[in-house]
Specification:
single chain; mainly alpha; Chromosomal Replication Initiator Protein Dnaa, Chain: A; 2 domains
C-alpha cells in the first residue's frame, strides 16, 4: 500500500513500528501561556495569584513578580509588555523595569538566582515538581533535584 493512499492513523502506526515506538504516540506539550506561567511562579515562590497581582511589595512577592515578567518575556516572546503586565495588574513599564533589573539581581542575590534556576527548570520540564518552600529556606539542595531530568553538577 502506498503511503499517500493510507489513512493518517495507519501512517502514524507504520512510523511508530519503524522507529520502535509501538505504543501510543507521545502527545506534544501545549505551548506555555501567561496564566500557566503565572501558576508555576506562584508554586515556586509559594504565593497565590492574589499576592502576585496584589499591592504588597515585600521582597519575596516583588521577586516573584519580577521573575514572572522575565520568564514571560523569555518563554513567550510573542506576548507584549502590556499583556504580561495585565496578569499582575501592573503597567508595561513595570515589566520593562523587571527586564532591566534581572541581570543585576541574578548576579547579586543568591536567593534570586536559586529561585530563577528552579523556575526555569520547572518551565523546561513541566512535569517536574520542586518544593515550593525552597525559597523560604527549606533544603535548597534537595529541592532542585529532579529524578527525571537530573541537574548537572
Amino acid at each position: 500500500m502506498e503511503l499517500s493512499e493510507a489513512p493518517l492513523e495507519m501512517i502514524f502506526a507504520e512510523l511508530r513500528r519503524r522507529i520502535g515506538g509501538g505504543g501510543a504516540a507521545e502527545v506534544p506539550r501545549q505551548p506555555l501561556g501567561l496564566v500557566a506561567l503565572g501558576k508555576i511562579v506562584e508554586e515556586v515562590h509559594d504565593i497565590d495569584a492574589a499576592e502576585l497581582a496584589g499591592p504588597h511589595r515585600t521582597q519575596r512577592i516583588a521577586q516573584a513578580r519580577q521573575q514572572y515578567c522575565v520568564a514571560a518575556r523569555t518563554y513567550i516572546p510573542t506576548a507584549t509588555l502590556a499583556e504580561i503586565a495585565a496578569l499582575i495588574r501592573r503597567d508595561h513599564s513595570t515589566v520593562s523595569h523587571a527586564l532591566n533589573r534581572h541581570q543585576y539581581q541574578h548576579r547579586s542575590s543568591k536567593s534570586y538566582r536559586l529561585a530563577w534556576d528552579i523556575l526555569t527548570s520547572r518551565v523546561a520540564h513541566g512535569s517536574c515538581r520542586t518544593s515550593p518552600r525552597v525559597i523560604s529556606g527549606d533544603s535548597p539542595a534537595s529541592a532542585t533535584k529532579c529524578q527525571n531530568h537530573p541537574t548537572p553538577g
